[in-house]
User: Fold these one by one.
Assistant:
Number 1:
Amino acid sequence: MKWNTEQAQAINTREKNILVAAAAGSGKTAVLVERIVRIILGYDPDKGESFEKTPIDKMLIVTFTKAAASEMKAKIRKAIKEAINNSHDEAETAILKEQLELLPRAQISTFHSFALTVIKEFFHLAENLEPGFTLADEAETRLMKEQAINELIEKHFEDPSDEFIEFMDCYSNGRNFHEVERLITEYHEYLRNLPDYKEQFEAMAGNLNMSKEEFLQSGIADIVFSMARKRAEKAAELFGQAIDILKDSEIAKYPEALQSDRLDNAMNIISCADRRDWDGICKNCFLKDVRFSVAKKSRPEEAERYAAIKDEVAGLRDAGQKLIKEIGEMFLADLKGRGSDVNRGMSLDEQLEEMSRLKPTIDFFGKLIWEFDEIFQSYKREEGLIDFNDIEHISIGMLKNPEVAAYYRDKFKYIFVDEYQDTNLLQEEVICLISGDNNLFMVGDVKQSIYKFRNAEPEIFIDKYEKYASGADLKSVKIDLNRNFRSKPEILNCVNETFQGVMAGYDNSAKLYPGFEYENHIENAPVLYEIKNDGDEKPDALEELKNAEIEALAIAKIIKENLGRRFYDTKKQQSRTLMLKDIVILSRAMRTYGAEVYNVLMNEGIDAYINSGDGYFDTLEIRIFLNLMKIIDNRRQDVELLSVIHSEIFNFSFDEMARIRAEAGSNMSYYKAMTYYGENGESLDLKNKVRDTMDKLDYWSDKLCKAPLSSWLWDILMESGFYIFAGAMPGGRQRQANLRALVQKAGVFESTGDGTLYSFISYLEKIEENKNLSMGESKIVSENDNLVRMMTIHKSKGLEFPMVIIAGFNRKGQKGGGISVHKDVGVALNLVDGKEGWSKKTLMTRLIEEKRRVEEYEENLRVLYVALTRPTDFLFATALIGNKKGTDSFYEMVSWPGKREVIPAEALVYETDDRADSHIDGSNNRRYIEPLDDGIYEGQPTKEVMEEVYRRMSYRYPYAKAGELKSKYSVSELNSEASQERAEKEALQGELVSRLILEMPKFMRESAKLNSAQRGIIYHGIMEKLDLRYAGDLEYVNGACDSFVEKGIFTEEEISQIDKNKIAAFAKTGLGKRMAEAFERGELKREKSFVLEFEKDGEKVLTQGIIDCFFKERTDEGEEYLVLVDYKTNRFDMGKIAEESHRLRELYKVQMEYYSKALEEGYGLKVREKYLYLFDASMELEIS
């Protein structure tokens, strides 16, 4: 591969700390991997220079997810193998092979995995940590926090202090203590993500006690002066535009009024902000009332001109005034009723005094937080658990020991950090403690830092970038990679024009430049579709639709218009047509919006899949089954009970449910009403149905005492028939996968020791309540499934698609949390007077809110950047323009630089209606049958008529046999029909239909021995993915299987139940060596699917199947032919080799004939040899 100048610099620079600012699509991972390979070899081929070789186990390579770590390891493995294949030096090849052996043990992991390694290696230094500790998941942690906060509140109420009573009076809502509980747990969670969090809290609290001079010279004041300057600059711009419009329209009077009473104020605020003149800013926040009116009688022409521009000018003036008002609210606390006298507002001294009054409250609040922390930690110690925060804090504590830090500094000669822009303060602390002064390689893109809500600190990247760029640190360097090898030039231009002048630091170094030169390139300009739905009077059909559904109709229209368009696929190096699977719909959130868009797409005939765990608990199958679990645990839950008995589980109709309530009366719970009706009901059938239902619930409740929770849940799913019902619903595969995931989650939960149904329900409720926790919908689609993907922008990070539609471009942005704490500002609560009953924000709270507002704005810009840099060829956005603009929407934040098209919402609805009204020759297959007249036949039928009726009614269709045939058969079915003996037929089904049977859920498989069919699936999967040239090496097979586990292809349990020696033995056979040679030539095909037409009972039907393996060879005369191989895992009796061989040849004869026919018709070559390879016997059978 040819590297550009910047890439080569990043790969080859030595003995320096390197920060690589790698823009989207710039090949950062390839650069990182190449650098690692060259360090292993100790050679720079570009310069022909050698340096010290470093083995892979002397490097630390960290990233942020397990999937990313596994992918990184796989890419390094691939790069080393390619280097081996390209090497002509025996010594170099030996080094590379040794690295392959070391790779499984190399420290390529997440930050948390590395931190766990530190804890395990230096466990003796840990305090209050049991040897058998396990990692708690987030839902378990939530439950423990709930228990801890309850204990804390109860403890203080047992012996309440005056401080506690006052605090509860001020910050609880009078009915319960939920608000106090929320404050303690949320502040605690924020603080725990800081190093030395107790000390940092004390420092932040200290900012409440500052003099005026200290405040004005502090970094905190920078926030407020910066805010004033930016808002005043924008206000000045708006006032200036209004003045220009008035002057252009020759309105004589009002430009001067706007200049003196608006624009001058804004300019003065800018000047005062630069001088840090607090009082000066305050004076300029009081604006005189400027009303525009033109005397129609004295100046009729001017009045007419003014009428044409009045709304526009007034809009600009009001927007500017709103910004000035916001400055006043920050500096003066409140502008209402203040008039023009600055002394009527709160002075800075008064506001600082108000802040200092809060200090004792914050100090007591801190004590509550630390008490909660101790109780929470004790709960975890009792259960032998640690959470992710503990991992970071414990490892940092260990690394602060000079000997431990020295150990890792000596161990790792090179440290690599991928996705550095997502580093948090704790992770940065770890890196600082173990890195040397010139061995750190950090790569990332701050423009793609979109995890602030998960405590990522993009400021770490920004500060280091500025420091390295300044040249102050001679041992450090920053390198910009801004050549984009993903997107076509018109998309890059759209990205650059969108963010220049809007995103801080988006200069020529941050801009994206094309990585390729395209010949004969057809431009596909990015388009923003503005869906106009802003009229006051709308058609009924439009009024009935939700906004998301209207936008979804536009998205469906865009998809249909672009399907089949040709584009040049740079990865495949070929021109091809756009398919559904090439398209992704991105949105900031998918919880409700995504489901509404999905339903419209499906109704429009566009297959789609939502890749989001947000809606797991909103799915019908999970909601009903959770309700069933709840009423088994506690019958007296009316809403849940009604939901379950009306579902397919018990099939009560609305009439039956109403009858039960009517006869039992309304003065009791519905559960008691059912109990009453079961004893006294009038309808015997309904009475028996109620009794059966109550008996079934009692039976399931009793059964819970006798079985593990996960087994019990699975039994209920099957006994109730609900699992089968869910599979029969639209999207049944997904629904069943979701139910299996619930059972699997129960198995994990009960392994923690608390396997009660009540605890599991509480655990699930915590996951549902917390937006940052997710069950994650079970993924059942693969990359090759031809359907449109729908996902959040966050999930799309790191991915690319030929066509991207950014939906909801005008939907309002998401706001952050509601706690007043920020590491760079301070900590606060509202100032409350419980006796007088008032609550107000102090200056500190307003400063924190402003800091967070700026950070949220910057984060939203970065989220948009990620979305705009996902497409390779086609980029579209949809914005529903209604009567209100989306607050903090992308549409408000940036100006779309590309093409815009307007779609009236009415047109989308009418277009749909037209399709619905179409007849059989239209796009909708609907037939409309006119009603028959009443008088069809008069009089008595004659003999001739009767005979004709009889002839017609007794007609026999001559091709009735064809009706018994299926249009498509699997090879397995055809082979089964050819087998006469029952035993052989059963063996055939066990082996050949193994890929078609429903897989047993993993939670049931992991503890049980795999059957022959399941082992067969694993053997086939491994044989499909192995590099056959090295498969004879058992160490290679072991390493490959380990990588399959890391990638989630197979579980460790599955891999443990196959014999890897048999795979290595196969590769050493004559057949295995021939296959390896064909693989080397690129003439071996594996897992090739086919469809073949043939005649059956006089009718043409199709058969389909998957061929395990075939390869091409040549005779001595150069004639090409094919060799067919099929793997079998049947049990083989070695004591009866001849009989068993004959049986298997006969058993699979028909199958191999169909495979041969398919290959010969598809490739035009003769299949000269056909083999079964029997893994159980480690032998091959040739089929004649």
Note: Residues 294-298, 335-343, 913-936, 980-1008 have pLDDT under 50 and may be disordered.
Number 2:
Amino acid sequence: MLNVLDIVRHVFWNDQLFDRDFLPPEADLEKCQTTLADLATMTGAERIAVFQECGIHNSLHPVFLRALQRLTAVNGSGKIADNYMLHHHLSAHNWSPSLSSAHLLGYSFVNSEAFSTDKVDGPIPRPKGKMVLDSGGAISKTKYNGLLNQGATCYLNSLLQALFHISEFRWTIYQMPTGEEAEEKNDTGVKRTKSIPYALQRLFCLLQRGNEAVDTTELTESFGWSSTDSFIQHDVHEMTCKLLDNLENKLNHVQQSGKGDHSSHTKNNAISQLFVGVLENFVCVDEVGYHGSREELFYDLQLVVKNTTDIYTSFERFFQVEVLDGKNKYCLENNGKKSYHRAEKGVRLKLTPPILLLHLARFDYDIERGETKVLSRWDYYNNLDLSKYMPHASKEDTDYTLCSVLVHSGSDAGFGHYFCFLRCSDAWYRFNDEDVSPASLREVFGANFGGFKLNYWGSEVPNTTNAYMLVYIRTSQIGHLLRSIGPEDVPWHVVRQIEWEQKEYERLLKERAEDHLYGKIYFIQPNDIEEEHEFLSCRRPQGKQFPTNTTFRVLLSTEALPAFQSFVETQLGIPISEQLLWYPLERGENGHVFLHKQVIQGVTVSDILCGEKECCVFIVTHSTVNYIEADDIEEGDSVKYELLHHKLYIPLHLKVVFLGCTVLAYKKRVTSAEAIQLIEPFIRKRITEIPADANLRPNHHLTGGGSKCTVDPETSAAPSNERPLGAWTVPPEKIEAEKRERLSVLCEYDHNAYSKCSPYLNSGDILVWQEAISEEDKSGVFYPDIVSFQQFLRRLVPVEIKLNHPPSYSTLINTQLAENMTYEQLQRYVARLIGDPENYDRIRFTMHSPETKLPYFMKGRKKDRPTLGKLLSPPVPRYVALSRYLYYEYCKYTVTEIEAAHSLQFKLFNERVKPISQHWILMPREIPITPVELFSTCVREIQEAKSNSVHSFPTTPVLPKAEKEKELQERDVLDSDMMFYQDLDPDDAWKELRLVDVWRGRIYNVFDKDHPRTFENSTFEESAEYRIEKVPRPIEGVPLQNQSLIHVHHFTMVRQRSNSVETHGDPFSFYIDHAEFAPGLLRRIAYKLGLSEAAVVDWKMALVRENYVVEVQPGVPLGKQLFEFSLESQYQPNQQYPLKMAFLGLEHAPLLKRPVKRDSRVVILN
């Protein structure tokens, strides 16, 4: 990581774009155990996760990704030496993904006068994603324009060029209605809709009308991508399908037409008519005369390259007929009877589109090396004849001509570069990002076939530049599909918008040249201060954006008042007679800025700006503020005005809200006490208008399907509806007396510094009001006044509190809290939000694991994690940054009771290995835990508690949905299981039951009458999943010495991981007859699990120990296989190293396992 930091500092750094304070310390990067070789093979999202672990600020992720890309480009994937050296006398070359004028390849320049620049404000930064005719790209050397690479968007550039030069596709994009999106772009202060069709129209317009390489940032933003996503290289074939599918959905939404044979297969919109074809999957069973078929739409055909020589041999393999015979016979079902027959299965072309996309499967998966690239020679041709595969079609429909070749250059799947060759006006051109150049036929064809070539020393080396996608156009329609598209075909609103942006850019350049003569005034109103309190104490909040109708660029020498009033009346519709204008200015000896000065006659804009370039001006009217006349004012009197601001501190909500402003008009100055008395009615009225806390989420802990434990509804307090502030509950006659006791006020004389009001109030004073804290709220108030609340503000950390209920983990609140808040304060805070403040001690917290991105498997105990900072600290030592996630659960018992006793949460399982209820018990620490004591306590809890049914974990993906009769039958089985526990004598339960310790689908320990020693543990592990079930019964009629109790686990093989065996589902224990064979055992297992034999026919049985897996042989007795594989003692539970325990494995895919997130997958979010 230090090498990446060097590249950032000395090659790509730009002080105008990045803040050096955000650079991480070298000491933090030295702790990172990830090597450069590891980073080179990661996806973009995985790299960002490493950056976050190293404490790299989010704003620096793009430049760090660019630096890492430079290292991989120079050294290659997996070959980066950790001692990579960089010459430290090299200067940083300006680069940013947000500047279209910046080069995207990292050059290093030696410091010299030739490259020095004057210290000026720099070029005017264009709005992110905005494309103007002067895009800042390289001037095109041909009549065709290139596309700028944002970082790793070469695949997208190649695809866009290929689509743009298909004239019919370009014309289709031009015809899509996007006039509303164009109108939204006229106002840069309004957040516009991100429309993919409109972004494509603008991009194509610039490619057609401009003379420079064009930026694609606006298009990728319309996909919903951030600047970081532009550094993640995707597959061009996948991107093609996603983009076409998205455009097709936006074109008339999918309409079917009943005309002709073609329209019955394809969708009736322009995209589908160009790219969508029809395949027919067929099955022929000649024995019974059965012929079945199913049609399938396609955007592209995937041709196999491995073990083929050219495009026609790949088509032969694609259409090769498969014979289903032997054990793989085809099953036919008639009147509920199944029969198996020899059959032929295959696919054939029924309809081809005018534009045929061929994806070449250049990447293959190797079980040892992972995803590899197929580098063998594979030929393609200028003309393609498909008549052999479509004998029913005419010659005109089967002849195609090559139009585009998309090429991947690189030796493996995760590294490389894309470019393309396009046929334009009967000549071939190479489009490589912004570079466009003529290409020879050898470059288009032979150079991209792959294979091997001789290097300088005469050795054969693979040619890693290969065709990856081919675009063929039907020869009979090539004149129409590639016809000329003139300027008149470009949508007029797109051209007009781009021309307007060009004028705006020129205007900004002119303004920059005259900037020293002008200033900018931003007009604000009370509702703006409600959103941003910083307006009260600064000239302009940093980073705040203002709409154009409130932004006034004016000459410094202009008299302020008439100019401001005219602008406000014109733009905001406020009459001049109602306006009072105020601006921020330094006040007092300390020089702090307050919003307090009135704009009066004779003051110039320069006087208001005080040497600055920008400033806010506050507009008030009698209707928007509290206007008070302290004296009887008549026309002609000399009146003075003071502007006072009001805030309210709400200790129960941990926040300060803005109440409004008061304009105090007087002839004779009034004291602060008199002013407060005049203002107080307005404050009380505003308090009554404040709504209840928007963060309240009553019963949130029940939204995830119930709490983790079984909670008696009678003991769960009903949420109390919090009343709005100011909604008094006392009788009206007592209101006045009570009001005077409930309000206090302090003056904020400095930022976050407060004191009692001075004898006289000054214009610009900020008065902080507070209601008295009621007795019922005192326990939930942690900072009773605004002064103590400052301690809270100084220790803020971001935190998102989630409900600890998988799989959704719904968010309760996403906010900022003080890291020194105690465990109990957090309990009270969460309990108030969910509407149960009385039972706050039932709230228990769990930390976030940065490795799994899920709750940590151990709970956060009060004594070990006493504060929020400790709860957010990562439980894994090698992670140092605070997490922002915290999980809570609503417990059956209080946390104090739980941590003072033996706590056991368990599920009750039936003999079908399905959970039927879940429970929670506490046992005193003073009482020794014995099987008799444990199981008697558990059974009493089961008998007393109401059953809390849960859904079982399905163990097969082929299990059909249960019908109503079957559901009733299963319910009867569950009722009978519960009757067994209801009738069981608690004192004898230890003879019938056992406690099983399960974690991640694997049995670790068993607690029963035969294993009493394990109950000597001080407490139960909270990380485990405990379940109580009946003790397994031996096989009847088989001597005990001829059978063994074996643990059976469901598992899958994940070969690319070091721990290749991944267990899942609900394991169980099962007696196995030493003399029985695998098929019979599988039938008994299916019966135990309540499954049909057909449901488990594809399951494989294996003997597993650690990562050693041996498939069970069907013709060998199981006893022989068991004890040849491992000693009998290694099958037993409660071993010192549980992961080394042997078991019988059932290999199949889990049904409810969440799909693996593939961060490199193309995702279009719009």
Note: The radius of gyration is 37 Å.
